[in-house]
């Protein structure tokens, strides 16, 4: 079994990759920076030395690099069973104050990367009638927040992409799940003053992804929303 997880050098993506490797999946991961990527690859491999870990430097905001990553995946793996579109950037700020071009930048990483990679891999997934696509959305996909800015727009768009994909892939028996976490203890929250126990551990997000995958093939969890027990911060 083979899985692809984008933006997996840390945080939620890394936790999901480690969980899937532990369960016997070969995994393909990507990130922008070489050192964190190498560290993540070693940590994932340590979870299960028997699996293959493909790690590629990819700027997910660059369409050409996203498509090249897709081609490398298809060369390495005969099929893709799980695709986790996790890559994303969180930059807070009010729409009227944020720098020009930020919306385009966030759309490229948070939405277009999932669109392009999914389209690249789907022709090889459809014949097997047994795949699962997870799109890492956010509670910001459902509720606008002050200073959500362009980030909130992109997360609403990603949820829309996920819903549309779900409808289109029903006849092909490929499941699509939108996973929308609230505050999670990842690097995205560095510098934010909050007690660690007010945030969710990324391993919990990985656990719900695994749970959704292991359900009967005639069952699909369409949307998952997770928040800290005491609510958003």
Automatic annotation (TrEMBL):
Descriptive protein name: SDR family oxidoreductase
Matching Pfam families: adh_short (PF00106)
Domain of life of the organism encoding this protein: Bacteria
Gene3D superfamilies, alphabetized: NAD(P)-binding Rossmann-like Domain
Similarity annotation: Belongs to the short-chain dehydrogenases/reductases (SDR) family.
Entry keywords, A to Z: Oxidoreductase
Species this protein is from: Chitinophaga hostae
């Amino acid at each position: 079994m083979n899985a692809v997880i984008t933006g997996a050098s840390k945080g939620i993506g890394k936790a999901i990759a480690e969980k899937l490797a532990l369960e016997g999946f070969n995994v393909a991961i990507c990130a922008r920076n070489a050192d964190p990527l190498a560290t993540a690859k070693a940590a994932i491999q340590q979870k299960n030395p028997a699996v293959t870990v493909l790690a590629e430097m990819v700027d997910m905001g660059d369409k050409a690099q996203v498509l090249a990553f897709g081609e490398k995946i298809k060369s390495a793996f005969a099929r893709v069973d799980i695709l986790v579109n996790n890559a994303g950037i969180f930059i807070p700020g009010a729409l009227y104050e944020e720098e020009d071009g930020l919306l385009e930048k966030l759309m490229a990483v948070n939405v277009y990367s999932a669109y392009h990679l999914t389209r690249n891999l789907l022709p090889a997934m459809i014949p097997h009638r047994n795949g699962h696509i997870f799109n890492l959305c956010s509670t910001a996909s459902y509720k606008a927040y002050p200073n959500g800015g362009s980030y909130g727009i992109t997360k609403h768009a990603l949820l829309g992409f996920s819903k549309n994909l779900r409808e289109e892939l029903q006849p092909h028996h490929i499941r699509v799940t939108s996973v929308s976490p609230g505050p999670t203890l990842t690097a995205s929250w560095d510098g934010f003053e909050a007690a660690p126990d007010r945030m969710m551990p990324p391993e919990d997000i990985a656990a719900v992804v695994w749970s959704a995958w292991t359900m009967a093939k005639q069952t699909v969890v369409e949307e998952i929303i997770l928040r800290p027990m005491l609510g958003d911060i």
